Amino acid sequence: MTGPGRAGAARTFTAAQAGLFNAALQQLRGGSAAAALPLARQLVAQAPAVADAHQLLAMCLADTGDAERADASFRTAVRLAPGNPVPLVNFATWLRRVGRTAEALDGFRRAAALAPGHAPAWAQVGLMELDAGRPHEALEALERAVRAQPRALDAWMGLAAAHRATGNLERAEQALRKVLDAAPAHAPAWVNLGAVLRLQGRADEALACFTRARDAGFDSPELRDALAGTLVDVGRPGEALGEARQLVARHPGFAAGHATLAHILWEYGPVLAADEDPLHAFRAAADRQPDNRELQVALVAFLLQSRRADEALERIGALRRRDDHPVLAWQEADACQALGLAERAEGLYEALTAHYANHPGFRNARTRHLLAQGRWREAESHAAEAVRLDPRNQEGWAHLGVVWRLLDDPREHWLCDYERFVGYLEVAPPEGFASIHAFLDELEPVLARIHAAAREPVAQSLREGTQTPGRLFGRPEPLLVAAGQALKRTAERWVANLPTDPTHPFLSRRAGQLRFAGSWSVRLRSSGRHASHVHPEGWLSSAFYVSLPAAIGAGRDEGDRAGWLQFGQPLETLGIDLPPRRVVKPERGCLALFPSYFWHGTLPFTDQAPRTTIAFDMVPESPWDRLTPAPLDSTRIERHA
Fold it and tell me: What is the pLDDT of residues 166-214, one digit of tens each?
């Protein structure tokens, strides 16, 4: 054997060196990196031109915490095996482990380019793209991974996650079923399949998946939380409450579990636990765990959502004396804004702007504060930044519509053309029904049975009413299936007649096929209404009128519009007194369609009969939907003003 670095040095192990390699590798795999390290050093001294020797040494150094020498040894292994993707993959895996993610992704990409059929490299590229919030890029890499190695279960799991992140729930389901075909006891696949089915509205099937995972021995607070939520979806709120109570008892530091328990008690507590404060357990857990930031933030968020800003502010003050994290300062700013402490809120928002400069949600919060203070030009700047960061951000566009209206800017009419962009259509009856009214006569009792809550959800627009849990379309009831199909057909026909405009945030995403991004029913009681709001998760939103009380106004004058739908009136808490731009009289069997960024709400009514609607959000079913408009090019916008 030749000496270190000499030309012609052997690039493979001798039999004795192979034995030394295996002995060191066995120690390393057994968790004894310190014992493996001297063997690896000895091997490198004997076989300096063999890539596997340097790779083994790098792994030992990495596991013993010697990052600098591990890096050097990995690089030597890569240099000695220029045609082999394995050292690159192992090096990149270590880089990812130590937080050097950009270098790791580059390494995995180099390995994949070197060996296009190497499934582990493509799988890691896809998983890293997914972690970075780039699911479309992840899809391509993970598809290549499963083509190269059809039984690569981690790649199929990643592919399912990428499809779910892009909204393609059917493909996500298919990928997860591939995993379960190969490994029927794969509990994480059952958990993820349950989550995907629940998002499709198939709550009974989702519950079976979660139960299957638990029966297989898988137990986690996340699984128990999903079980509780799904029990609500399937109409078993009493069991859901019991599951949520067990969850917080077993995992008192799990913030999401406390939020789930509070939500169940908020909506169903008046019947299931009449004397219990929905937030009692949440507060007690937070008081016992003052250093659990996630729990504290979740409680404050619930307080703000339930319009208890004074209590939220009191808690934040105590929290920030121990933990001055920016998210707590943001919550304090929101609480001050809700309580009318404008100067204090301004100071907090201003101080946080640099930290959250690239956060559309913060830009929207700052915009709302500035709108409430009458600082319209500054509000425009932050709203414009929100849609620059996220061109599909419905709240950002909604805020721009308000600002441009206040400034008498013609772009308001370009963005919010209430005549063209609000559709109001009669829905044809599903097959087998003589009229839409005959269909609704049978549909209404089905919806009434699903409306099991006692009050409205937290952080929703409805006041004095209830909302169905989960996804309405996807449930197995035949009448709901028929309703979903009829409404989807109606929406797609209306969208097909819209003009195209690649610069417009609504028209640029027009597609022939749409998919539901959410669906639910609302049942308003007497004096019920919807506060003005927008739908952040949609592109196209809706209201379909199933049953209407006699008190719905006839529209003889402006005071005769009880229960009507109105557009263009901004969020009430902004304190901006603007009349609606358009009002629509509800008609049973009719469907209103409009961009999800349109401010919309309803006027209250007084009647013993409820006002029942179905609402849904839709997004384009198109690969081109990832393309986004250039949001604020005024030279092109003015052409359409």
Answer: 889 999 999 999 999 999 999 999 999 999 999 999 999 999 999 999 9
What is the rounded distance in angstroms from the CA atom of residue 189 to the CA atom of residue 195? Answer: 10
* Residue of 164, 229, 162, 156 whose CA lies nearest to 188: 156
Containing domain of residue 461, as a range? 423-640
User: In sequence order, what are the residues at sequence separation of 6 or more whose Cβ sits closer than 8 angstroms to the Cβ of residue 69?
Assistant: 61
The two three-digit tokens of residue 635, written as one number: 């030279």
Q: Are residues 59 and 112 in the same domain?
A: no
Domain check: are 14 and 47 in the same one?
yes
User: Helix 135-148 crosses helix 119-131 at what angle (to 10 degrees)?
Assistant: 160
Domain harbouring 545, CATH code: 2.60.120.620
CA distance 142 to 127: 8
Is there a single domain that holds both residue 553 and residue 469? yes
Shared-domain flag, residues 590 and 510 = yes
pLDDT at residue 146, rounded to an integer: 96
Residue 238 sits in a domain whose CATH number is 1.25.40.10
Confidence band, pLDDT 50/70/90 cuts, at residue 459: confident
Name 449's Cβ contacts closer than 8 Å, sequence gap at least 6. Answer: 235
* Contact in structure between 130 and 158 (CB atoms under 8 Å): yes
**Element (DSSP H or E) covering residue 544:** strand 540-547
The confidence band for 10, taking pLDDT boundaries of 50, 70 and 90, is low
Q: State residue 635's pLDDT score.
A: 29
φ and ψ at residue 540, rounded to 5 degrees: -125, 130
Question: 30 with 159, same domain?
Answer: no
- Residue 369: inside a domain, yes or no? no
User: Looking at the domain assignment, is residue 337 inside a domain?
Assistant: no
| Mean pLDDT within 530-537 | 94
Predicted confidence band of residue 625 (pLDDT cuts 50, 70, 90): low
Calculate the average pLDDT of the chain.
Answer: 92
Q: How many domains does the chain have?
A: 4
Q: Is residue 533 part of a domain?
A: yes
Residue 262 and residue 151 share a domain: no
On whether the CB atoms of residues 534 and 398 are closer than 8 A, the answer is yes
Q: Note whether 550 and 627 are within 8 A (CB).
A: no
Task: Give the pLDDT confidence of 359-411 residue by residue, as tens digits.
Answer: 999 999 999 999 999 999 999 999 999 999 999 999 999 999 999 999 999 99
Single-letter residue type at 600: H
* In contact, 240 and 264? CB cutoff 8 Å: yes
Residue 623 confidence (pLDDT): 54
Please check whether residue 292 is in contact with residue 300, taking contact to mean a CB–CB distance below 8 angstroms. no
Same domain flag for 190 and 176: no
Q: Is residue 353 part of a domain?
A: no
